[in-house]
Specification:
Chain lengths: 234, 183
């Protein structure tokens, strides 16, 4: 069983290129996300945000370039990253209950006391009353809460979030923003794709705008950060 | 060790989801029942000739059933992109394949055992005197068929027109398991 010890983790993308046939999803993207940073990725549909996140999660192999994870001291350490990934799809089983889903993934990840961890997360995401209900009976927002709980099971050092607020109601967005704030303040590295401004985008300490697979803007300043997010939404 | 524990957890998930939805088992059992009944109309079940071909007919029916049952096993993981969640969670991705293989073998064996009495009655073939040996042959045949079918399902899950190449390749690669088993 894995003891969940926290170690800050940074991500370095070096000359990442991804081609689907003749179509470029990413063109020579080089980025460094420092340990503990909260970065918002913005850009129009098809700009390469999802591809970049899936490459970081090692779910997609880049056509060229490398992704490295570094420890708090900036040294490359591929095993330092403990990832939590929230994608467009919920990545949970409709034919299992919310609790069974979390138990399944907790056991696969070798988490100590999976039942206690699943229960704590179900309480956190506000689904403890529906723990025994099949996920297929849930609304989109409730499924998204299960997806978020699944991503948080291993107390991740790096959170990769692809439009994580999809389907969440305003209370859900507030709850999730609060959860992310807590994770950010405890040194977790967050890389998330967003559309427009929200309580969640307000947590970002840096914003990057992608367009046609290229990094078009990268800023840490408050005013520019807002303009990147809103321009991307226009 | 991680491979074994991950496989056990995933096999539990496969069995739970299938016995809850009964999606594959119901479809396959109905399909194979239709095939066996149609075969029984085609051949005269009382003739010695039909009993001579009974093994081949039985395995032909199982082969059709296997191509129906095995093909969607990885495809189902794409509905909610659960395959990505599994890949992020398991320490050895081979556990995903082994769990699918074990589940497919069990489902196929269960289908075959359910179908044996029907086949025995329709073709007037006595199975009880050779039941023990028959179960062993069914298990080995099912394992062979499942290895090829599960691998093809994994390979073709992302492909366009995946049903066609999968069934075609299934029949080609399943032959080595099928030929000795039909005897």
């Amino acid at each position: 069983m894995t003891a969940l010890v926290f170690s800050p983790t940074g991500i370095r993308f070096e000359n990442i290129e991804k081609r689907y046939g003749g179509l470029y999803a990413l063109r020579r993207v080089s980025l460094e996300v420092a340990a503990g940073e909260c970065v918002a990725l913005a850009g129009r549909n098809g700009s390469g945000k999802t591809t970049l996140l899936r490459i970081a999660a090692r779910l997609v192999r880049p056509s060229a370039g490398t992704v490295n994870f570094s420890d708090g001291g900036g040294n490359v350490n591929q095993t330092a990253a403990r990832m939590g990934f929230v994608a467009h799809a919920t990545m949970v089983y409709d034919e299992l209950t919310a609790e069974e889903n979390l138990l399944l993934f907790a056991r696969l990840q070798g988490i100590a006391e999976p039942a206690a961890r699943a229960e704590a997360l179900l309480r956190d995401v506000g689904l403890i009353e529906r723990r025994g209900s099949l996920v297929r009976t849930f609304s989109r927002g409730m499924r998204q809460r299960v997806a978020i709980a699944r991503a948080l099971l291993n107390d991740p050092t790096v959170l990769l979030l692809d439009e994580p607020a999809t389907g969440l109601d305003p209370q859900g967005v507030t709850w999730f923003a609060e959860t992310l704030r807590r994770l950010r303040d405890t040194g977790r590295t967050i890389l998330m794709s967003l559309h427009g401004e929200s309580e969640i985008s307000a947590l970002a300490t840096r914003a990057i705008r992608l367009d046609a697979g290229l990094v078009m803007a990268d800023t840490c300043s408050g005013a520019n950060l807002r303009s990147i997010l809103t321009f991307a939404d226009a | 060790m991680a491979l074994l524990s991950n496989t056990a957890v995933l096999l539990g998930k496969e069995l739970r989801t299938e016995f809850r939805s009964r999606e594959l088992l119901t479809t396959t059992v109905v399909f194979i029942l239709i095939v066996v009944v149609l075969f029984s109309f085609t051949f005269d079940p009382t003739s010695a000739e039909s009993r001579r071909f009974a093994g081949s007919l039985l395995w032909l029916a199982f082969l059709f059933a296997a191509s129906l049952m095995l093909q969607p096993c990885f495809l189902r993981e794409q509905n909610n992109d659960t395959l990505s969640a599994l890949r992020l969670s398991v320490s050895d991705p081979f556990a995903i394949f082994v769990a699918k293989l074990a589940a497919n073998t069990l489902f196929l064996l269960l289908t075959e055992l359910l179908m044996l009495p029907v086949f025995s009655i329709l073709f007037n073939v006595a199975i009880f005197p050779v039941f023990g040996r028959l179960v062993l042959v069914l298990f080995l045949g099912s394992l062979g068929v499942s290895i090829a079918g599960t691998a093809l399902s994994a390979v073709s899950a992302q492909a366009r027109m995946r049903e066609l190449p999968c069934r075609y390749c299934c029949c080609r690669y399943l032959l080595p398991s099928w030929l000795p088993a039909r005897k």
